Amino acid sequence: MLKRIVAFMTVCSIVGVLAIMQSSTPSHSSPLIILLVFLLLYVSVCGALTFLLYGVRLAVVRISKGKLNDHTSTLFSRSIAYGSVLAFSPIILVAVQSIGGLKLYEIILVVVFETVAIFYVYKQQ
Q1: Are 53 and 45 in contact (CB under 8 A)?
Q2: Could you tell me which residues come within 8 angstroms of residue 49 by beta carbon, excluding any fewer than 6 positions away?
Q3: Per residue in 25-58, pLDDT tens?
Q4: Cα–Cα separations (whole angstroms), residue 70 to 47, 60, 75, 124
């Protein structure tokens, strides 16, 4: 059920982003619309990364063990946790680029932030 919810939210956010991009321009949009675009982009990237990570983990489990146990819900929930952390980095980079300040220093800061966040998620589980 959780997989369906994530898939539905991903498709809805992609459709929402496409609808907003077709109907308005950033210069004529309110700050709320721009915030909505960033939120929808985050949800779509999070869903895509979640299913990508889940597929990779599922393939590794099938290759290593040859048989899949009843741990698919655990694999998917961990994929959601890692996907949500990893999905935040492109949003940060796009936001920093939009204000004209994306340099090597900011990229290193985002990489450090992602490393700390992934380590935190790893220790939580």
Answers
A1: no
A2: 82, 83, 86, 87
A3: 878 888 899 899 999 999 999 999 999 999 998 8
A4: 22, 15, 10, 21
